[in-house]
Structures are given as structure tokens and as C-alpha cells.
Design brief:
Low-confidence stretches: none
Strand content: 15-25%
Strand order of the largest sheet: 1-2
Helix content: 40-55%
Distance between the termini: 18 Å
Number of helices: 2
Radius of gyration: 15 Å
Order of helices and strands: EEHEEH
Number of strands: 4
Shape: globular
Largest sheet: 2 strands, antiparallel
């Protein structure tokens, strides 16, 4: 079975990995790097298309989770 990668992004300041979730990206106003403390604000207007796609992915994940619980 393939190993799932932890979702997140690379900090533009210290270049370490910032773990996050789709739900956090959709709801948070900013992300904080746990290593250097950089605050990354999310420009929702500029990122509108990406946010819409993330919402679709999040909904698909939730539906898959519900279906797997129902079938399991």
C-alpha cells in the first residue's frame, strides 16, 4: 500500500516543512512556521480558485471517509 505524505508546505524563510491540513488552509487566516515563527497570511481573494479546489477535495475526502465507515 502506498505511503501517504503529510500535507503541508515549505517555509519560504527557513525552508523547513510546515505541516497543515486542507481544513486548516480553508479556515485559518494565517499559518505559522513552528521552526522560525514566520506568519504566512492567506490572501483569500488572490487564492479564490485554489480555495475552491481545496473545498472540493475536502468534501471528497469527507465523503470517502463516511463511505468507508459505512462499508467497514
Amino acid at each position: 500500500m502506498p505511503q501517504q505524505q503529510t500535507p503541508g508546505l515549505k517555509c519560504p524563510q527557513c525552508e523547513k516543512f510546515i505541516p497543515t491540513t486542507i481544513s486548516e488552509l480553508l479556515s485559518a487566516q494565517a499559518l505559522h512556521c513552528p521552526y522560525c515563527g514566520l506568519e504566512l497570511t492567506i490572501n483569500r481573494q488572490e487564492s479564490r480558485q485554489a480555495m475552491e479546489i481545496l473545498k472540493e477535495v475536502d468534501n471528497a475526502n469527507k465523503n470517502l471517509e463516511k463511505a468507508s465507515k459505512f462499508n467497514g
